[in-house]
Amino acid sequence: MARPPAISGRKADHLDLCIDGDVAFRSSNLLDEVGLVHDALPELALDAVDLAVDFAGKRLRAPLLIAAMTGGVDRAERINRDLARVAQELGIGFAFGSQRPLLEEGVTAGYQVRDVAPDALLIGNIGAVQAARHPPEAIRERLVEACGLDALAVHLNPAQELVQPEGDRDFRGALEAIARLVEALDVPVVVKETGAGLSRSVGRRLVEAGVRWVDTSGAGGTSWVAVEAARADAPAAERAGRLFREWGIPTAASVAQLSGLGLGVCATGGLADGLSVARALALGARCGGIARAFLQAHAAGGHAGALALGRAVVAEIRMACLLTGSRTPADLARKPLVVGPRLLPWIPADAPLRRRIGP
Fold first, then answer.
1. What is the pLDDT of residue 166?
2. Model's pTM, two decimal places?
3. I want to staple 271 with a disulfide (CB 3.0 to 4.6 A). Which of 187, 213, 276, 311 is the partner?
């Protein structure tokens, strides 16, 4: 039997496909179903809009993360250092892709960025299956302390794993492992999906486990099922990839599902501009995360290209706040909303969000 490729080799495949592969969802993340009500008399100056928010124990100057995408391969070194610099310059957050290569293979490429981002929110990343297999002490030492992390994301990705030829098939013990990390680590634990979204029932179980921060990573952005299907050379995996390519809870629906549970939510999954971030904030997200657009901007223009994108997104969020008469993201989260018919059924009847629907 052929030996499966090393984890870092798989990450190189992921990077190529995420930059220019046909791996995006074809369906909407439903943020286009969120109508923000225009305020023609905002009584605000643009420079009076204060975008600062708290996420995972750190203050951000704007409600934006450069979301998880890469790490564990030589090419990730420049990418992650440049993107972390952007996070430092803009006062936003930066999240690593999976740190499994560092934890299990000792691969350091792309994981040492604290020297170029001394103040930025840095979020690590390990799979729930790996969290269940390794003691919290090892995760603290090899990931949190070694990389100077402010928070650790634990990612859930059963759909991706089931299509990945060398992927995991046993997801038992994940919630218990997350609870252990919450108890053992001195930094916040952020639980995130990987392109398929988090439901209300999962949100409740996470709250019971002590989790306070989540990342939706909903359907509508990069389909990691499509990524794995593109890598697969087995007919069964390719078939499953085609069938489940659009699987998941759309990003806007996931934010709505999690509303009112007391979780700090980062909305990721198909966000590419400041208006989509503003729509997520209006649904109650604490911040929005953009991954593929930053990766593509960096591929086209390096650090300067990624910085230009970041500046544009922050300016667009500020503009959306002013045009809704919102001085802060928290104000935006209290404004009335117009919600389209595809998103409305996802909003729980007991969620406070229901009371804000209607101009």
1. 79
2. 0.92
3. 276
